[in-house]
Amino acid sequence: MNVLAQVVLTLVAATGLVLFLLAAIKGIRTYFKYRGKRLIVCPENRLPAAVEVDALRAGYADAKDSPHLQLHTCSRWPEMRACGQECLSQIEHSPEDCLVRTIVTRWYAGKVCAVCGKAIHEVDWLGHKPALLDPEGKTVYWDNIQTEKLPEVFSTHAPVCWDCHIAATLLREHPDLVTYRPWPPRT
Ligand SMILES: [Zn+2]
Prior knowledge:
By secondary structure, this protein is an alpha+beta fold. Helices cover 40% and strands 13% of the residues. The chain has helices at residues 3-34, 55-63, 88-93, 100-108, 150-156, 162-173; strands at 37-41, 48-53, 71-74, 131-133, 139-141, 158-160. The longest helix is centred in the N-terminal third of the chain and has 32 residues, at 3-34. The termini are far apart.
């Protein structure tokens, strides 16, 4: 093999590698863009539904330059398993806005705990998550509620900080271990 042929082969290989890497980066970015649980309005009944896009498939398809979205899960399945997945247009239009993570973060932003009055700054996703206070006065973590019920629950429940949720849970489940000392009334 002469030198010219070696140079041409090297250039072809290098170009192929660059194209492969660019496609891989595109696919990975698409995967991260579409992963995670989302809340959409189901076009069939106009009510909230919780869905997840098949982010792996979306990333792979985009890497091959043939973008294609499809759902991986939906809270209305299996009843609506054969639907046309028209809700995907909402996700394509604003992928960030319908992420449950975004919706929860925005709801807690600027709110104060309904029990102690402390400001709830940022949602700590891994540790001290804030909770909710239901109309009966019981606290519950928002992620223990069905995702599609969150819009309704956010309109009827109040925000509660992690400390107050833990204290309320302890008082509710182990009253024998807790001494309850309410704040003295103000004079
Ligand atoms: Zn509190």
